[in-house]
Amino acid sequence: MKAELFYKLGKYEKSISELKLENCSFNERAVAIAANYVKLKEFDKAKSYVDSIGKGLYIYDYAFANYNESIGNRNEAYKIYSEIKKDKTIKHYAYYKLAVNRFEELEKSNPKLLNEIYFPTENPSFDIADSDNENITKIFNLMEKLPENQDWAGTEILESPQENDKNYYWVRVKTTENKEFNYYIYQETFEIKFFDPKKSKLMS
Asked: How far apart are CA 1 and CA 165, in angstroms?
């Protein structure tokens, strides 16, 4: 929390020193240090910390896009935000929504470019991701109780409303006899429909 306070007060060197002492995740520390170096206009150092996160992690893409905006590379930032926007599997992360906001800003004819990398907050009221645990738990319980699934061996969520922009979960159940049953379970009502993926047909 001290590092974040120093950052907000413009005491970037102190924020960096504090971050190197704080017990937080490596990736979030790297992003936060990079954010400070951008404010200090030490862009090479900022990029080295962003690069240290490693490609493939959601936070890397968002931070790298922020970095490109900060150095005036609008086109590269727009390209990265566009790729984030297309990836529905990370839609539940808070960074996804922030990236979409930046994408929309950069689509304007005269956008206001960022001059910072997002500093990950330690505020406990900030959720890094929308939790879907309650619904998932309910679905798993429903699947185990269905008569067709009495030889239940496992349940897999193939799609969720967070990913498919629809109002259902696509759920697959496997039995101990290696049979598979597919279901659509609707988010609001938890109505269950059988789904035949080969025929792409729903049955109540």
From this structure: 36
> Is the Cα dihedral 183, 186, 189, 193 positive or negative?
negative
What gap in Å lies between CA 44 and CA 182, rounded to an integer?
51
Query: What separation, in Å, do the N-terminal and C-terminal C-alpha atoms of the chain show?
Result: 52
How much of the chain is helix, strand and coil, in % rounded to 5?
50, 15, 35
128 confidence band (pLDDT: 50, 70, 90): low
Query: How many CB atoms neighbour CB 7 within 10 A?
Result: 21
Laid out side by side, the sheet with 201-203 consists of 152-159, 168-175, 180-186, 192-196, 201-203
Nearest-10 Cα torsion for 112, 86, 136, 176: -160
* pLDDT at residue number 123: 55
Place of tokens 């950069």: 106
Tokens in use for 139? Answer: 């679905």
Q: Are 192 and 180 in contact (CB under 8 A)?
A: no
Q: Decide: pTM greater than 0.85.
A: no
Please give the Cα distance from 119 to 32 (Å, whole number).
5
State the number of CA atoms in the 13 A half-sphere of 37 facing the CB. Answer: 20
